[in-house]
Amino acid sequence: METILFYVLAVVTLISAACVVFLRRPLHNVLFMILTMIGLATLFILLHAEFLAMVQIIVYAGAVMVLFLFVIMLLNLEEISLPKEPRPLRWGFGVILALALVVVLFPIFSHFTPSVMGKAAPATGNVSNIELIGTELFTTYLLPFEIASILLLAAIIGTVVIGRKLKN
Amino acid sequence: MESAFPVLLVLIKTLLVIVAVLTFVAYLTLLERKVLGWIQVRIGPNRVGPWGLLQPLADGAKLLLKEEITVSAANTAVYIVAPLIVVVCALIPFGVIPFAKGLGLENVLGPVANRFDLNTGVVADINLGILYIFGISSLGVYGVILGGWASNSKYSLLGSIRAAAQMISYELGLSLSVIGVLMLAGSLSLVNIVEAQDSVWKWFVFRQPLGFILFLIAGSAEIARTPFDLMECENELVAGYQTEYSSMKFGLFYLGEYAHLLFLSSLMTTLFFGGWQGPILPPIFWFLGKTFFFVFVFVWIRGTYPRLRYDRVMQFGWKTLLPVGLLNVMATAFVYTLWLKYVG
User: Fold this and answer.
1) What are residue B120's DSSP bridge partners?
2) Burial, A160: exposed, middle or buried (Cβ in 10 Å; 0-12, 13-18, 19+)?
3) H helices within chain B, ranges in order?
4) Which of residues 70-129 of A touch B (CB under 8 A)?
5) Quick check: B78 and A62 CB within 8 A?
6) b/e string for B131-164 if b means 16 or more Cβ within 10 A?
7) What's the pLDDT tens digit per position in B246-274?
8) pLDDT by residue (tens digit) across B284-314?
9) Whole-prediction pTM value?
10) Nearest-CA neighbor of B91 among B302, B225, B266, B218?
11) In sequence order, what are the residues at sequence separation of 6 or more whose Cβ sits closer than 8 angstroms to the Cβ of residue B333?
12) Is the ipTM of this complex over 0.90?
């Protein structure tokens, strides 16, 4: 049952990810990107990371992509005016970038034995997922957590400063 | 057969909840028109059936039989998908709302009933219930935005841009207003939240009054009820994002809107008014009674307040609702910690 679900969801996610790259209307790209995000969230659920899945949907599919859509609607972008004939070096660049990504991700991949479902998160027993994440964030990972929040705060203040209307 | 049977039962349960919700939604339209009529000292619908009781059926038949128009300049695929997104996102959150304590099925079905959550008065008791609700409602915005964009009309586009901005802004306030309740209940599961309010003075409306008011305001902005229905205000934008929709596609938008209203009322009941808890009468009665009371309150608000100006709506959302919500979260955390340390 879970294996079938996994394959169906993975195929949907991959196809929509491919559509993000290959379709030529910006709005369709964004729509398929949303579908990709939701697909990823469902895969998280299959791995028993429900909290991550919900946050993925709320933050990425629900908030970030709405802003993307907003910008595209306001700018009224139509079909991108890319040259129909690809430039000669583009394939070369693509291959080099893909290889670079593989090199970066290699240490991560090498830790996993290939299997269909990947490795599910350890069972948490009676303690719920979110409780565990909360406890870990505020004990083991307190310092990185606080540094990340200061980073976010700086970004928020930055947007306010940039977005402020200057009065003479 | 052994494994298919429980799946079938879960499906039947889901279907029953959906049918119940759709029936209530149909009669909500009648209720709204009757109450509005009463507020405005007129009679309201009374032609179809006794007291107009068959009016929803007549409306539904009319919507189904109307001519289906697809605007020639529309982006057809997106144009068709948009109302579906609205309806789906309005219906699936009902799955986590607990409407009763137990259904008493263990005598009929035996051990299967408990193993597959069939006996609980909720379709799915997931321990992230609230997050699930916010996740789904944040996806519901897409139906509105895409509907307005795909119609390729200036009124629709303006309406949907307004809708997007307003819904994003008020979603923050809505989530912040609930955090106090989550802290006091110590759980994100709606079943646990209801169980934490087992007596009237434990209802979260008394322990989180500010949270409740914020939730009421942000909620009515989120479902675009009258003081905040800037995205479809007739005198500026014809009908906003649904201007170019006709027949059943318009009907679906309408259905989504009222399903949202019903959902918000039931969520308010669950979070702040003890859900199905109440003396003597069966739980389902209490749940429906409280829910319909809030539906009435929303109609009452619609009949009473004028529409706000758009820039005021945004200002209020960001500069009043959000800071007050944050303050409520901090104050709740502060008092609750002290309480746990010295009293409880």
Assistant:
1) B102
2) exposed
3) 4-39, 55-65, 76-91, 106-109, 112-115, 129-150, 154-185, 190-195, 204-207, 209-222, 234-237, 247-272, 283-304, 310-316, 322-342
4) 70, 73-74, 128-129
5) no
6) bbbbbbbbbbbbbbbbbbbbbebebbbbbbbbbb
7) 777 888 888 888 898 999 999 999 888 88
8) 888 888 888 999 999 888 888 888 888 888 8
9) 0.83
10) B266
11) B183
12) no
Taking the CB of residue B342, how many other CB atoms lie within 10 A of it? Answer: 7
Counting Cα atoms < 13 Å in the Cβ hemisphere of B67 gives 4
Q: Which residues of chain B have pLDDT under 70?
A: 1-6, 73-74, 103-119, 233-235, 344
Contact B135 A63 (CB under 8 A): no
Mean pLDDT over residues A1-10, rounded? 83
How many domains are there within chain B?
Answer: 1
Using alpha carbons, select from B81, B193, B27, B32 the residue that is nearest to residue B126: B193
Domain ranges of chain A: 125-168
DSSP state of B104: -
Which residues in chain B have their CB less than 8 angstroms from residue A128's CB?
127-128, 187-188
Q: Which two tokens stand for residue B114?
A: 């408990």
Q: How far apart are CA B336 and CA B344, in angstroms?
A: 9
Residue A113, φ and ψ in degrees, nearest 5: -80, 135
Q: What is the pLDDT of residues B22-59, one digit of tens each?
A: 889 888 888 888 888 888 888 878 888 788 788 888 88
- Do residues B187 and A127 touch, judged by C-beta distance below 8 A? no
- C-alpha of B239 from chain center: 21
Residues in chain A closer than 8 A to B132 (CB atoms): 54
pLDDT, residue A147, reads 93
Is A62 an 8 Å CB contact of chain B?
A: yes
The parent domain of residue B108 ranges over 4-342
Decide if B205 contacts B212 (C-beta within 8 A). Answer: yes
Q: Does A12 touch chain B (CB under 8 A)?
A: no
* Cα-based angle B128, B134, B137 (whole degrees, multiple of 5): 135
